[in-house]
Amino acid sequence: MIILGFDTSCDETSVSLIDVQDKEPYLKIKILSNIVSSQVKLHAKHGGVYPFLAQREHQKNLPVVLKKALRQAQGKPINFIGVTVGPGLEPCLWQGINFAKNLAQKLNLPIVPVNHMEAHILANFIGEKSQQNSKKIFPAVCLVVSGGHTQLILMKGIGKYELIGETRDDAAGECFDKAAKILGLGYPGGPAIAKMAKEFVRGRASIKLPRPMIYQKNYDFSFSGLKTAVLYDVRNRSPKIGKSKEYIRAMCFEIEQAIIDVLIHKTLKAAKNFKVKSVILGGGVTANNELRKQFKEKIKKEIPYSKLHIPDIKYCTDNAAMIAITAYFNQKKATKDWQKIKADANLKI
Ligand code: KG4
Ligand code: ZN
Predict the structure, then answer these.
(1) What is the DSSP-derived secondary structure letter of residue 46?
(2) Distance between CA atoms of 158 and 162, rounded to whole angstroms?
(3) What is the pLDDT of residues 285-332, one digit of tens each?
(4) Fewest 10 Å CB contacts: which of 19, 141, 204, 211?
């Protein structure tokens, strides 16, 4: 089965073609193409994403990215189309939806509307080894951490999700982005902070930031206080120190570790309480190497009976391959009543 996926939920225009072969109990998911056109350079000038600017870029990029994706997939006939309908930036979502609808009408293909958060979870099923043997995987606890969301989800199977916790204010990725802006490190903040944190030499200047809500008896998060703590610390330093490489490295190290500590603590608490068979990570922040490493170590030590699933780094940040896979698992939603497909910026899982 060949599926064409589109994602334009934020600042990446992405188109992908995948080939799914269902040979029980194995499911082979092959990525034929996964083209991601990033608008990072454009938005970096503004220190964040401007929805209407992003929409215009999607409009410009979609035909080019589609052409590349089709060329790479070498003319394989498409069975259906999957497109992100939410959550995301509304003008951007509509751009992708309308483009997908036009194409679907031209080719007389059904469309499957896709939830972007579910796609970040199902990105874990990419690969030749992907197992369909759900007894080994579920129940699972999923941590989805992106620029707009931080959610803990109890997953009893594909399509069976229960939101057990989420951020009450900023998302983890947003905290990385805002803290980087305060430190003058540009956009997106996650990779910039990770790079500086890696250069920090332990034992030198040390900074202590809060770990918001870490010991509270719930699965919710809060990251806006962490960003404010960064702002106050910077303001309290002399301009010379506040701008020094040594200070910025120490601060980046502490920001990264504070976010990792909270994410790991709450996820492991949920994993233990719900006695899950696996922990599933997804979303842009899970591209963070330190987070990946520490999750691996902690799970091995504290809940060795649970298996950790993290997508390949290239499938953590926004991409259309994960949208196509999610469309595969939601085939029953396929429709040729194209007008029914609508954007929902606040779509819930
Ligand atoms: O999933 P994603 O690509 O887009 C959304 O759906 O929001 O996530 C983007 C977020 C940004 O906030 C970015 O700073 C963060 O993921 N991010 C990272 C890293 N790479 C991207 N955060 C920490 N470390 C990284 N290496
Ligand atoms: Zn995303």
Answers:
(1) T
(2) 11
(3) 999 999 999 999 999 999 999 999 999 999 999 999 999 999 999 999
(4) 204
